[in-house]
Design goal:
Strand order of the largest sheet: 1-4
Low-confidence stretches: 92-98
Mean pLDDT: 83
Helix content: 55-70%
Order of helices and strands: EHHHEEHEHHH
Structural class: mainly alpha
Number of domains: 2
Number of strands: 4
Number of helices: 7
Distance between the termini: 50 Å
């Protein structure tokens, strides 16, 4: 049975969904900045990427070649045989929204939080599907066409669910900041 490894959701998005490989720290940082606006400072984004890739390298999931700014990271065979899941994100704002909800029992906030949790659960399932289709493609390369359509559908559906989660996160954050 393949090893199941939890990854930060941003790293999961970059390495698994976007299938980044053979990248430098700066290249992966730039890609990170295109998928999220969590990091306002590019140096903080670079440090985050460096810490994550170094941790994956220590676990023998990534190999590096070169040095300095030209150091490139590559997925290893262990990486390719592992199953990855994105870690659930716990945002401080959501915690304060939850306590705000308990105090005022806002049906809107409760509904939005419940929908967001449901979409996050569905997203985790779909991401597991994507991983499994990829694993099946590697195990049975002679039948790639059999898995391609299902893999493509799962990726598209996970992208839609991620969009819903992001939209609900934005709305909940604005509600927490006092918007009507």
């Amino acid at each position: 049975m393949p090893q199941v490894i939890k990854l930060n959701h941003h790293i999961y998005s970059l390495l698994i969904e976007k299938e980044c490989n053979g990248f430098t720290i700066v290249e992966l940082r730039d890609e990170l900045l295109t998928v999220t606006d969590t990091y306002q400072d590019i140096d903080e984004a670079r440090k985050f990427i460096y810490r994550q890739t170094t941790a994956l390298e220590r676990k023998k999931l990534l190999n590096s070649k070169g040095s300095g700014r030209h150091k490139k990271y590559f997925k290893t065979e262990l990486f390719n045989n592992a199953t990855f899941v994105a870690k659930q994100v716990v945002i401080e704002k959501e915690k304060s929204i939850s306590s705000h909800t308990n105090n005022q029992a806002s049906p809107l906030v409760e509904t939005l939080l419940n929908e967001k949790k449901q979409f996050e659960a569905e997203l985790a399932i779909l991401l597991g599907e994507v991983d499994e289709y990829k694993a099946l493609q590697k195990r049975f390369p002679e039948h790639l066409s059999l898995f391609y359509s299902a893999l493509d559908d799962a990726k598209n559906n996970s992208a839609k669910l991620l969009g819903k989660v992001n939209a609900l996160t934005t709305v909940l954050a604005s509600l927490n900041n006092g918007a009507p």
